[in-house]
Structure formats: C-alpha cells, structure tokens
Amino acid sequence: MTGGAPRRRGRPARTEAETGPGARERILEAARTEFAERGYDKTSVRGIAKAAGVDAALVHHYFGTKDEVFAAAIEVSFEPALVVPAILGEGKDGVGERLARYFIGVWENPVTRAPLLAILRSALTHEAAAKVLRGFVLRRMLERIAADLDVPDPKFRAELAASHMIGIAILRYVVQVEPLATVEPEEIVAMVAPTLQRYLTEA
C-alpha cells in the first residue's frame, strides 16, 4: 500500500477554459452547429458539451434542458431584444417593410440560415421542437410586437404577420419552390411589406 493522501473520487475539477467567460458562448455556438448538422432528434446535451469542450453538467448549468438550449439557439439568430424595438420604435410608417427586411435578412445570412433551417425542419417533424419554436415566437417575438400595436386584436395581427413570414421561409428555404426560391430578396420585401403593414397598423 502506498503512502500519501487518498485519491478523491468524483468529477475532476473543471479548468478555466471549461468555466471561463467564453464557455457559455462556446456552448451556444456548438449547439447551433449540432442542431444544424444533426437536427433536433439526434442532437444531445452530451454531444453539444463534447463539441464545446466542456462537461455536460455545464450545459445544464447555463441552459437547463435540451429544449432550452434549442430555444437559446433560436434567440441568438433573431436577437429579439435588440431588433423588435428597432422595428417598432420608429413608429407605424414603414413597420411592415422593416419587419420584412429584417426577417429576410436573417434568412439570407449564411451564418444564421443553417441553424434556422435545422430548427424549422425539426419543428415541422418533431413536436418537442415545434413546442419550443412556438414558445419562442409567442413569448419573445409576437408578444413584444403586439404590446406596441395600437390596433384591435394586436396579438392576432402579430400572429398573422409571423405566419406570413414563416410560410415564406418554408417555401423559399426549405421546400425551395420556384420562383420564390431564387427571386431577389428585395423583390420579396417589396411584395410582402404592404401586407405586413396592413396586419400591424390598420384598424
């Protein structure tokens, strides 16, 4: 029997790289990549942790469940806390165009498009993913928009606007129906903006 202090059992101490200020961002970036490449079903918290170079317990610490990581991946693409005030804060004039241009811009950006494609595909085929997407759209986006709309049935109108934009996303980026799939983004904005304007502003 050798001398010295007994070996401690349990989880090894985490390094600064695992728990430092960049750990949360690395986890989120890894989650976006995992969801984009594997889809909702095949992505696991353990897999996200491995890709981020951290312990799975740290993923749970920052985000909780896989659903909550999924929701965070959606939010980091849309950044509603920054964008919704910018879209609505300038007043009613042009709100439909600003919303359309912002939404199409997010999808046209290759960096945000890949995880959004995985998220949308997963939501179409997996109820848990659809539930997370609904919760995000309702709580983080639509309720914020509706709160600033001085029109009858503001939440319903915000939902109509969202359904219009999500329908475009499915047909253009997922199903890739022509000519919508290849038409210039500005043409989509020009056609869609008046309808969104009517949804959001006309009494």
Model description:
The protein is mainly alpha-helical and 203 residues long. It is 74% helix and 0% strand. It is built from eleven helices and no strands. The protein has helices at 16-19, 23-42, 45-52, 56-63, 66-78, 80-88, 95-108, 110-125, 127-147, 154-174, 185-201. The longest helix is centred in the C-terminal third of the chain and has 21 residues, at 127-147. It is globular. Mean pLDDT is 80; it is low at 5-17.
* H and E string: HHHHHHHHHHH
Helix content: over 70%
Number of helices: 11
Compute the number of strand runs: 0
Mean pLDDT across all amino acids: 80
Question: Could you outline the blueprint of secondary structure elements for this entry?
Answer:
Elements: H1 16-19, H2 23-42, H3 45-52, H4 56-63, H5 66-78, H6 80-88, H7 95-108, H8 110-125, H9 127-147, H10 154-174, H11 185-201
Helix pairs in contact: 2-3, 2-5, 2-8, 3-4, 5-8, 5-9, 6-9, 7-11, 8-9, 9-10, 10-11
Provide a short characterization of the protein structure.
By secondary structure, this protein is mostly helical.
